[in-house]
Amino acid sequence: EVIRRRPPTKGIDGVSVRGDITLAPPGQQVEWKPGEGTEICPTDVDVLVASRDGMPRVLDAGAAVDEVYAVKKVDLSTGHVQFKGAVIINGDVTENMKVIAGGNIFIKGMAEGSLIESGGDIHIGGAIIGHQFSAQDNTLENFSTVVRAAGSIQCTLAQYARIECQGDFQATKQINHCDVNARSVIAGTEDKLNGKIVGGRFYLDFGMKAGILGALSESALQINLNRRVDPVLEKQQALKQNIAMVKQEMEQIRQSLEQMKQQERSEAALEQMKYLVDDFEAQKAIALALIEDVKLLEVDRLSKMTEVLVLVKQQMFAGIEFKLGSEILPVKREYGPSKIHQVEARLSIEPWVS
After folding, report:
1. What is the number of alpha carbons within 13 Å of residue 130 lying toward its C-beta?
2. 305 in Cβ contact with 324 (< 8 Å)
3. Of 94, 100, 265, 297, which sits with the fewest C-beta atoms within 10 Å of its C-beta?
């Protein structure tokens, strides 16, 4: 057995601010999408079983069992590693080497390679150690090491590296001057939140948790919390451009109608005017529908902004800059345990009692 499907639940009804009951939509049955190496159990349709030996990997609506390639280390003697399944490396990935896998990647040692890319999760027992080739205008770019995953990434320490993942990024000890693009970031563990984050740039969905954020040296630390918000804003901008084009079309139709009203109203002219009126009403309906879509996206955007949260358990230093929506919140002094989230449509720093 690889993965079990739980039955859908009824959900719990809510209550609006006016006291009205908001009915919860019932849960829907997940339709299996078995990956390679798995199949539906013949005796239990809610279970996927392995059809071959290998490494299990969870998918959105199922699981896969990847073939496994194992190697002691990755260096000039082995060459780059590219494998469609899971890769297990019992030692280090040395500088300038590449590891690309369709499944999960497990590295027991350090990762100094130029590229480590996974179609699943990446687990690194040691540290991610990179170098910065250039630093201009206080920006971080041109890192020697890039770690990229379709899932989550975990390590003990990361420094001077670009980290990109659709899931969460966790470093149990420290993150130094990295460029991170992730769903959320944890420095430390959920049980013991004592990790440090010093310098760097972060582009996140939901926020981060750390023991210490920033440093006494006030190293520049930019935390952009708009990874889920920006795509919604881009859709809004595209819709607003379409609305402007439709309104321009409506104005041209209106001007044509005004001109025709001043001319002799022959049967052909009246027919043409009727066609223009119908076209105007059609364009108006399109504009109203687009405006409604923009409003719905705005509700979605504001909702996503309320879900953002940054928790600092021990200490937060000056030199940090938070961004949510178009608002930028600079940290100008030292704080103790803190919580950064949206309060009444504004980013706020509040004391956090864990």
Report:
1. 27
2. yes
3. 265
